[in-house]
Amino acid sequence: MNKFAVLLYPNFSLQEITCLTSALTVWFGEKIDYIASESREYLSEEGFVIMPTKTVAEVNITDYDCVILPGTIDPLPALFDNKLIDFLQKGANSDTVFAAISSSPLLLSKAGILRGKKFTSGYFMQMADTFPFIEKDNFIHKGIVEDGNVITGIGMFFREFAEAVLRRFNYDIGDSFMRDKPEDYSEEELTFYWSDDEYKEFLEELKAYTP
Questions:
Q1: Which among 91, 121, 134, 179 could disulfide-bond with 61, CB atoms 3.0 to 4.6 Å apart, if both were Cys?
Q2: What pLDDT, on the 0 to 100 scale, is given for residue 91?
Q3: What are the C-alpha distances in Å from 117 to residues 27, 41, 51, 209?
Q4: In sequence order, which ranges of 145-211 are alpha helices (DSSP H)?
């Protein structure tokens, strides 16, 4: 089993990471820690309210095989969250894989994790002119860029981002990760049945809800 974490901050994007987190938890049975600088509710940009499972003070970043950073429509609160940036900085020289999508590579740049590494991002390019810690010469205008222990992606390529992370950890996701087309399936293939044992288990669970 690998150890994964997702960082939370104001206005983070669930949509950009749920292909990845769903595959990790539902397909492969991994447990994910949701880490923030404070133990409080965080509102996603889609309007979901999420409570972190741990704070940065309670964990060591280098204990994780992969730290996932969702994008955010408003990166400034996270960028100037000293607790969060300090937490990331502690992983700057580690083997931890950092997977950052959309605007979140901005946080990796500030923490020094992108120093000397090629990367991409979905933030507006004026940010690269505004913040001196961004190494503009290393910005690659591609959907997904991998360099060493860093995987970065643009938000519109959330599926490809998930695929890159899953393949990095050698999960068996086949040749067409989440690319199946409904019209390619027969009626039989789209009709689902439990096994006898699974159905018995369901009936046992149902007893708790019926008189």
A1: 91
A2: 95
A3: 31, 33, 32, 55
A4: 158-168, 196-206
DSSP string, 2-24: --EEEE--TTB-STTTHHHHHII
- The residue count for the chain: 211
Please identify which residue in the block is written with the tokens 């019209």. 183
Say how far apart CA 190 and CA 58 lie, in whole Å: 45
Six token digits for residue 111: 């923490």
Whether the pTM exceeds 0.90: the reply is yes
**What value does the mean pLDDT of the chain take?**
96
3-state secondary structure of 178: coil
Q: What is the pLDDT of residues 181-196, one digit of tens each?
A: 889 899 999 999 999 9
Q: Where are the beta strands (DSSP E) in 27-161?
A: 32-36, 42-43, 49-50, 54-55, 66-69, 97-101, 144-147, 150-153
For the chain, domains (ranges, CATH) are 4-179 (3.40.50.880)
From its phi and psi, is residue 116 left (phi > 0), alpha (psi between -120 and 50) or beta? left
Name 65's Cβ contacts closer than 8 Å, sequence gap at least 6.
2, 3, 4, 96, 97, 169
Q: pLDDT tens digits for 47-90?
A: 999 999 999 999 999 999 999 999 999 999 999 999 999 999 99
Q: How far is CA 59 from the centre of its chain?
A: 18
Spatial CB neighbours of 157, under 8 Å, sequence gap ≥ 6: 143, 144
